[in-house]
């Protein structure tokens, strides 16, 4: 369905919309859309995928915030 992009080793991304940490394998946005995720679900995936390469613990806390919102709205 989606073509894989070639890996770019040790190269800074020049695309501010799709930085390298969002495009390893499948682009995160395309993955979220292909699974028809809602806002909270998409943000959980986004923050989990990028936490090692961007904001670390802060991104994990953001993911937890959206997970908690998702759980609250399912109960």
Summarize the structure.
The protein is mostly helical and 75 residues long. It has helices spanning 28-34, 39-50, 57-74. 7% of the residues are buried.
Order of helices and strands: HHH
Mean pLDDT: 82
| Major sheet description | none
Percent helix, as a range, is 40-55%
**Which structural class should the secondary elements be placed in?**
mainly alpha
User: What does the overall shape look like?
Assistant: flat
What oligomeric state is this? single chain
The N- and C-terminal alpha carbons lie at a distance of 34 Å
Strand residues, percent: under 5%
Q: Any low-confidence stretches, pLDDT <50, length ≥5?
A: 7-11
Helix segment tally: 3
- Tally of extended strands? 0
From the alpha carbons, calculate the radius of gyration and give it in angstroms.
14 Å
List keywords for this structure.
75 residues, 3 helices, 49% helix, flat
